């Protein structure tokens, strides 16, 4: 399977996974369908039952094996990426970075829409070559040897070297969540090569110099973000402060793993239905990748080094390339006031998408692909 494990090794891991799922020891408190305490008991029992008995592991493997994978060894990291070249000679390269708690699989629904847009009502002349790397320590990418390799700036430097190795001297970059921060650092540290960046609201700082002068709309947005952090940000505090203590449990218990991941997919998306087999297939596809590669612990480490130098997020004036934002009401924090963003970045495109949440590439691939193509078109 993509050169990481033999079929027999994967089969052995899947058999062990199913056995663990069927032997799940459930918490002594059953919350039913109440999600106010975290992942609801009903949701997790449904996911565990489906994962153990109905999830099609063979189809999951076939979908992954059908993708064009590459592995590049750069210093101490083996970087995994899916690299899809468009058949159109005028195509331009775009590197798209995923976030947490997803994997490179989140970006896969964009592939054909970006590499062959004419098949979806678009224009062949807008086509892109697509590079979808796995973040270090996620899925098939190895972890860096030092914790500093997990910072957004360090990953941006790594991606620049990936694009050099692939033969792309100039390129576009896009990403959400962690990927938005990595993409922003590409726009600062490699501005001579990056043609433009396309990011979610995660690229924005949540506090500004002179915050007291914020408009009422901006202050309301900051208050909402602070309220969200107080009510929903426990995961981040744990992953920033004591990530390994949590990782022991999630690396040993697939039920614990899917409870931790599934709750985020439920609460951060635009009303994804966790009772739907199609949605469960998506979430469990990511969970299976984390489990097979045993990378949930290293996926926490970008949070542990979140504010290590040179910082989690760039200062907008440092970015000297065109910036496009894509936003939605269901994304964490909702839609920031445009004035708030423009006080941080010189913005070339501001797109409010009508649907979709934190996992936009999977939730609404048509909307995101169309917006990215329109943004790139202006700077090709």
UniProtKB/TrEMBL annotation:
Keyword line: Aromatic hydrocarbons catabolism, Hydrolase
Any Gene Ontology biological process: epoxide metabolic process
Keyword Hydrolase set for record: yes
One Gene Ontology MF term: epoxide hydrolase activity
Residue ranges annotated for the Epoxide hydrolase N-terminal domain, each copy included: 12-107
Signal peptide, first to last residue: none
Protein name (record): Epoxide hydrolase N-terminal domain-containing protein
Family designation: Belongs to the peptidase S33 family.
Residues of the active site: 177 (nucleophile), 303 (proton donor), 358 (proton acceptor)
Organism expressing this protein natively: Bradyrhizobium nitroreducens
Keyword Hydrolase recorded: yes
Lineage top rank: taxon: Bacteria
């Amino acid at each position: 399977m993509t050169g990481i494990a033999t079929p027999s090794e994967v089969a052995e891991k899947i058999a062990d996974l199913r056995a663990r799922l069927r032997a799940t020891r459930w918490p002594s408190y059953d919350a039913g369908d109440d999600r106010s305490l975290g992942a609801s008991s009903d949701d997790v029992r449904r996911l565990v039952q489906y994962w153990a008995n109905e999830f099609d592991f063979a189809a999951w493997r076939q979908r992954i094996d059908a993708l064009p994978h590459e592995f590049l060894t750069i210093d101490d990291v083996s970087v995994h990426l899916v690299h899809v070249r468009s058949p159109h000679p005028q195509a331009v390269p775009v590197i798209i970075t995923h976030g947490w708690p997803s994997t490179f699989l989140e970006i896969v629904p964009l592939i054909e829409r970006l590499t062959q847009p004419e098949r979806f009502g678009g224009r062949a002349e807008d086509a892109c070559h697509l590079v979808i790397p796995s973040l270090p320590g996620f899925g098939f990418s190895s972890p860096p040897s030092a914790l500093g390799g997990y910072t957004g700036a360090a990953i941006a430097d790594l991606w620049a070297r990936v694009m050099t190795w692939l033969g792309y001297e100039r390129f576009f970059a896009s990403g959400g969540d962690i990927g938005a921060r990595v993409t922003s650092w590409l726009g600062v540290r490699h501005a001579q090569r990056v043609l433009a960046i396309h990011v979610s609201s995660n690229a924005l700082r949540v506090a500004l110099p002179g915050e007291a002068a914020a408009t009422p709309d901006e202050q309301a947005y900051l208050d909402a973000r602070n309220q969200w952090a107080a009510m929903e940000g426990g995961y981040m505090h744990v992953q920033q402060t004591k990530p390994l203590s949590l990782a022991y449990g999630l690396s040993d218990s697939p039920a614990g793993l899917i409870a931790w991941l599934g709750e985020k997919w439920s609460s951060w998306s635009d009303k994804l239905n966790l009772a739907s087999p199609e949605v469960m297939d998506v979430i469990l596809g990511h969970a299976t990748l984390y489990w097979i590669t045993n990378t949930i612990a290293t996926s926490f480490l970008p949070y542990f080094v979140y504010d290590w130098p040179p910082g989690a997020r760039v200062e907008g004036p440092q970015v000297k390339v065109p910036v496009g934002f894509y936003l939605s009401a269901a994304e964490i924090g909702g839609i920031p006031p445009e004035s708030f963003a423009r006080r941080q970045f010189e913005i070339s495109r501001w797109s409010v998408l009508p649907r979709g949440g934190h996992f936009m590439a999977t939730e609404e691939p048509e909307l995101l692909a169309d917006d990215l193509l329109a943004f790139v078109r202006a700077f090709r």
